[in-house]
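The methods section describes the discrete structure representation at length, but only in general terms. What matters is that the chain and its backbone geometry are given together, residue for residue. Nothing conveys this as quickly as seeing an actual entry. For illustration, here is how one protein appears when written out as sequence plus structure tokens:
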Amino acid sequence: MSESISGGDMAGARGAGMVTLPAYLLEDSPRLAKRLDDLKEAEDRAKAAVALVGPANEITQLHAQAAAERDDQDRMSVQTRKDCAELVANAERQAADLVDVAHETAKSLTESAEKAVAAVDVAKADATRFIAEAAAKNDDLQRRETALLNEREALNKLQLDLHEREQLLLDEKSKLATVREQIDTILG
């Protein structure tokens, strides 16, 4: 039987829809109670008839009728228990399937999260390495800039020194030219 009871008397107020056992018991409990009451009334009538009528064949017929009604009731009870057992087994199977799906989903999500964390760790390590490399390159650049500034200052100082020497040489040349003229004038 499937997970629900469909069609026939067991469909209850839901028509041809699917009915679960708890819903069936809740919806049909008044009907089952009425059936039990009807059976008890029938049994009571049979007992009353036996008490009033008294003949053996009527008593036998009433006993047979009561036995048949009890058999119907027993068959109905057995079928209901069987249906209940099947519904419980189906519900347990469905619950187990849901638990399995939930475990698989949780496992998959955990694996995805672990992969994401690993990827973040790798990216973080790469970023840390890149930052360290950039800091080292920045320090190297700062040293080179400082060295270039020092060299520029040294070149500027050297240029000033050369300019001063050139001035001194020009002054000396000018003095020598004056001395030469004086010598040429003297030698004359």
The first strand starts at residue 5 and ends at 6.
